[in-house]
Amino acid sequence: MLQTLAAACSFQEDIKKSRFAAHAAPVASVAEAMAFVSAHSVADATHNCWAYRIGNAYRYNDDGEPGGTAGLSCKP
Length: 76
Description:
The protein is α+β, with helices and mostly antiparallel strands. The protein has a single domain, classed as Ribosomal Protein S5, domain 2, CATH 3.30.230. Helices cover 20% and strands 32% of the residues. It has helices at 30-40, 71-74; strands at residues 9-15, 18-24, 50-54, 57-61. The strands form 2 sheets. It has a two-stranded antiparallel sheet. It has a two-stranded antiparallel ribbon with strand order 3-4. Strand 3 (50-54) and strand 4 form a beta hairpin. It is globular. The two termini are 13 Å apart. Keywords: Transferase. It holds the Pfam family Impact_N. Belongs to the IMPACT family. One of its GO terms (molecular function) is transferase activity. One of its GO terms (cellular component) is cytoplasm.
């Protein structure tokens, strides 16, 4: 049985001179997931990696990081 979040949540951590931010929320559709990604992407960030899973369908994006190292690890 798949689990889901009860509410949106965020976490941020600064390591050396880099800031890492994570945002997550329950979504019911691809459109809702992509709207969440758009709303939480930072225009001047070096990378905005993301992933979503709705049922058995999922998609992720490494946004310029080496393939499979960022977005894929976000995939629930």
